[in-house]
Amino acid sequence: MKQLIIAIDGPAGAGKSTVARILSQRLCYTYIDTGAMYRAIAWQVLENGLSVGDTDAVASVAENIAIGLTEQDGRQIVTANGRDITEAIRTPAVTRAVPHVASQPAVRRAMLICQRQMALEGGVVMDGRDIGTHVLPTADLKIFLTASIAERARRRWSELTAKGHIVDFTALQEEIAARDKADCERDVAPLIQAADAVLIDTTELSIEGAVEEILRLCRERDSGV
Q1: Is 202 helix (H, G, I), strand (E, B) or coil?
Q2: What is the pLDDT of residues 115-141, one digit of tens each?
C-alpha cells in the first residue's frame, strides 16, 4: 500500500484522536494530533499567567513554543519546550481556554506552517478540525468523524471522572455545544466537512469499527477503486 496522507476532522469528543492513533499504528504511519498542539499553546498561555484575550501575547507563545509529539509505549507524549505536558493539556481549564486560543489567526498561521511541514513526506494520519479543508486540502483520504453531543459528553465525562475530576454532566454538554458553535463560526479555518470527505458517525459505532472502515477506504484509495 502506498504512503497516504490521511486527514481526519470532526468536533470535540468524536473519537478523532483515538481512531487516528490506532489507524497510524496499523498502517505504521506518523500520527499528528493537531488538537494537542493547540492545547499545548493554551497550556503555555495559562502557565505563563497570560490572558487568552491578549492576542499579541498568545501569538508570541504560538510563534516561539517548541511542541514535540512522540510515541512511547503505545501512547503519544506531548512536550512543550522539552517539558512533558501530556496530562496537563487535558485538564478542564485548558479545555476551556483552547477555543479562545485556537480561533486566533496568528496562532493558526503558526500551526499551519508546522503541520504542513510534518506531512510533507506522506505516511501521515493528521486529525483536527480544519485538516481536510485548510491544512491538507489535497490529502489522499479525508474523513469527517462525528457523534451526537450527548455521546461526546458521555465520553468526555468518563475520561475526566476516571482521572479524578469532578464534572457536571449537563454543564459538560453545554460546554461541548458551545465549543462546536465556536469552531464552526470562527473566521479563520472553521470546522466544516470537506466536500470530498467521507462522513463516519461514531455515536453507535465502536472505535474498532471506525478504524476498520477507514482501513477499507485506504485499500480502495491504494487500488484506485
Answers
A1: coil
A2: 999 898 889 999 999 999 999 999 999
Model confidence pLDDT, tens digit, residues 5-63: 999 999 988 999 899 999 999 999 999 999 999 999 999 999 999 999 999 999 999 99
> What b/e sequence results for 94-132 when a residue is b if at least 16 CB atoms lie within 10 Å of its CB, and e otherwise?
bbebbbbbbbbebbbebbbebbeebbeeeebbbbbbbbb
End-to-end C-alpha distance for the chain, whole angstroms = 13
Q: Could you tell me where the beta strands, DSSP code E, fall in 109-212?
A: 124-128, 141-146, 198-201
> How confident is the model over 196-223, as a mean pLDDT?
93
CB 127 within 8 A of CB 20: yes
Determine if the pTM surpasses 0.85: no
**Nearest CA to 163 among 63, 95, 81?**
95
